[in-house]
Amino acid sequence: MECLLGFASSVSRDLVCGALNQLRYPCCFNNFIKKLEQEEGDLIVTRDSVQTFVAHAERQTRKTSEVVDKWLQDAIINVDNVSQLLKEAKTKKICCFGHCPNWIWRHRVGKKLANKTVDLEKFIVEGRKYVPFDRIATLPSGTLNILSEKCMNFESRQFAYEKLLEAVKNNDVAMIGLYGMGGCGKTTLAMEVRKLVEAEHLFDKVLFVPISSTVEVRRIQEKIASSLQYIFPETEEMERAQRLCLRLTQEKNILMILDDVWEKLDFGGIGIPSSEHHKGCKILITTRSEEVCTSMDCQRKIYLPILTDEEAWTLFQNKALIFEDTPDTLKNLARLISNECKGLPVAIAAVASSLKGKVETIWSVALNKLRSSKPINIERGLTDPYKCLQLSYDNLDTKEAKSLFLLCSVFPEDFEIPIELLIRCAIGLGVVGEAHSYEVARSEVIAAKIKLVSSCLLLDEEDECVKMHDIVRDVAHLIAKNENKIIKCEEEKDVTIEQNFVKYLWCVKFPNDLDCSNLEFLFLKTKLLEFDGIFKRMGMLKVLILVNDEDGKTPLSKVSFQALQNLRYLLIYGYELSNFTFVGDMKKLQSLSLHGCLLPSFPELQTDVVISQVTSLKLLELNKCDIKGKKFEVIKRTPLLEELYIVNIEGEWDANSEDNIEFFNTFSVPQTLQRYGIILGSRYFDEYNDEEFCSNHKTLCCIIRRIML
Fold first, then answer.
1. Residue 420's closest CA among 447, 446, 456?
2. Which of 92-112 are b and which e, b meaning 16 or more Cβ less than 10 Å from the residue's Cβ?
3. If 0-12 CB within 10 Å is exposed, 13-18 middle and 19+ buried, where does residue 70 land?
């Protein structure tokens, strides 16, 4: 009996529990809906995480397992099924003329909701296994902007900025080059462009990759990969390049900014796809050399100049914290110091920041040091621009360009150097070696000059001139000093020499205590009448420029050039020469230029003794000289003469007479002559520029001025 009672009790309990379990489907219907909605949210989050993981793996050029792919497909199906089930559950089913719910329908749908919730819990647990516990967070696009210097809105930058944006937005432009001298603000401007591009969502990805002067392929690959959150599975450079190229081609629209490029980059060796293979990859390079832009086939080359005076002053005030209530004395000092920085942003920022908050005495000392070409000593204020420009110099790939760079720094501040004068000085100093032909040497100097201009170490000026930025010039002097090749230029005061290794000297008063044993270049503008004692100490001198500082023609008859056995180029301006016997002492003389001099007649030169000793002469120039006599037979007897320039000679030459035609009838051009410029009578015509005739290979012009009675 007890067994029967126990069995009946057990069956009754099961029936009651079963009935209650079935009743919970219609009775707890709304709770089942809420529970499934929660699981639906968890499913969507897990699905998205797995999808992100799969996408990340694809960016890493890796393939996920088939199990993960299968789960992801099932997840997509489950999301749809749950959505439909919830939609069905939220449909109101009623009976008894709308007075009570449809319990049978609720039971059926409630059971589906409960079962689906249980299935989803297990499915989500499985999916979470395929999601990494943590991963590297994507850097927000504005992070680099916080770290970078803010670009001030200067008009001189606006033009370059607009051209840069136009090129970036142009779908037909794949390669863009932004170039300018070191420290002029190229990187800052590129960052501003990046900021706008990201704000307007012009590209899916924008990468900023520093390159630097030493090209290390592995480091560049790592920089690009890091920006893409990519990890190389390979160690070999070529395999990594292939993998990186595959990864970059996955980006449909990408802008890559390669900052501080010093030489042509091998995109294939790095892994950067060319525009032919990936139309959506646009590249912007910043460089100090226009030549790099050309070698890398930049379709747009954009030059970034230095700041104007007012822009420089605005930047200086900002960096040095100069305000309206700043004392006028300090403001005046600040303005003068700003002017000494000559519009170079990196110099302005460095100097201004180093002086910020300092007492007025420190500012005065800083100004004096800047004026005395000692910028490196201002609290290390110019360490950054010095390093920038030193690096520019170090990366010049020819010794000719380096030598020409140092030569340009001997000319005074803001001096516009005539290219023709620079060429003759450079050839005389042997900047391009011992070229057999003057024409070949000329071409090599011009090539070195072009390299300096393209590297932004030299500035092109009007009227066939070049100029060196003052900061660049100061750095050149420091470089020369470090190489024990001191360069000195003093226009107004006595020269002070710390060491006796002076190589190039430009002065108005020659220091008597100077050791001249290493001197190769001398520009001397003086009132001295006697040079014997000076020249005897200059056995290595190669270029000599003598400029008379007196009114009228000062006699130079007692000059002794016997010690100048290595002289290659001689330029004399404004002196009276009683004879030419000194030429015979210069056995290596290649170029002789006489400007505004009073000369003896040429027949005095026609002795076999003198002519036989001037066999090295390749260039002769007589510019606005007063010559006694008309005979030029000596020119025919100069065996190696390649260039001849005769401009507006005076004396017995009468520009009003047609007798000048006699010169052209009797003048016999030497067979070796490659260039000549003979201009007579042009002083009556203002439109003729005698600075330009040297750039022409051959010019022959006789202008006759008739006086009408």
1. 446
2. eeeeeeeeeeebebbbebbbe
3. exposed
Helix (H) or strand (E) holding 612: helix 608-612
Distance in angstroms (rounded) separating the CA atoms of residues 93 and 100: 9
Q: Which long-range contacts (CB under 8 A, 24 or more apart) does 146-154 make?
A: 148/188, 148/191, 149/188, 149/349, 151/185, 151/188, 151/189, 151/191, 151/192, 152/311, 152/314, 152/315, 152/318, 154/307, 154/308, 154/311, 154/314, 154/315
One-letter identity of residue 64: T
The continuous run of DSSP H or E covering 578 comes out as none
Q: Indicate the residue type of 519.
A: L
Residue with tokens 């400029």, as numbered in its chain: 547
d(CA 69, CA 49): 13
How far is it, in rounded angstroms, from Cα 98 to Cα 101? 8
Q: Is 593 left (phi over 0), alpha (psi -120 to 50) or beta?
A: beta
H-helix or E-strand containing 497?
Answer: none
Closest CA to 263 of 219, 218, 223, 212: 212
8 A C-beta contact, residue 617 and residue 589:
yes
CA 411 to chain centre: 24
| Lowest mean pLDDT across 121-135, 307-321, 658-672 | 658-672
Residues 427, 428, 429, 435, CA torsion sign? positive
- Which amino acid does the sequence have at 430? G
Tokens of 134: 């943590």
Distance CA 257, CA 704 (A): 62
More confident of the two residues 670 and 407: 407
Name the token pair of 156.
Answer: 């001189």
Q: 627 vs 420, which has greater pLDDT?
A: 420
Q: For 133, which DSSP code? A: S
How far is residue 315 from each of residues 308, 334, 339, 471, measured CA to CA in Å?
Answer: 11, 11, 12, 17
Tell me, which fold does domain 309-381 have in CATH? Answer: Helicase, Ruva Protein; domain 3 (1.10.8)
SS3 410: coil
Specify the pairing of strand 502-507 against strand 486-490: parallel
Task: Please check whether the domain covering 154-303 is classified as CATH 3.30.43.10.
Answer: no
557-578: pLDDT as tens digits: 556 677 788 899 999 998 887 7
Tell me which residue has tokens 């099961």: 14
Confidence band for 532, pLDDT divided at 50, 70 and 90: low
Per-residue CA distances from 155 to 83, 312, 630 (Å): 58, 12, 58
Q: Which of 92-96, 265-269, 395-399 has the lowest mean pLDDT?
A: 92-96
Give CA–CA dist 476/390, Å, rounded.
8
Residues forming a β-bridge with 576 = 555, 598
CA 413 to chain centre: 23
Q: Tell me the C-alpha distance between 264 and 684, whole Å.
A: 52
At residue 470's C-alpha, the angle toward residues 466 and 471, to 5°, is: 125
Q: How far apart are CA 605 and CA 214, in angstroms?
A: 57
Domain boundaries, the chain: 11-128, 154-303, 309-381
Measured between alpha carbons, how far is 331 from 327 in angstroms, rounded to an integer? 6
Token representation of residue 124 = 């989500």
**Tokens found for residue 119:** 């299935």
DSSP string, 55-104: HHHHHTT----HHHHHHHHHHHHHHHHHHHHHHHHTS--EETTTTEE-HH
Q: What is the mean pLDDT of the chain?
A: 76
Token digits for 669? 């051009």
Distance CA 414, CA 468 (A): 7
pLDDT at 202 over 70: yes
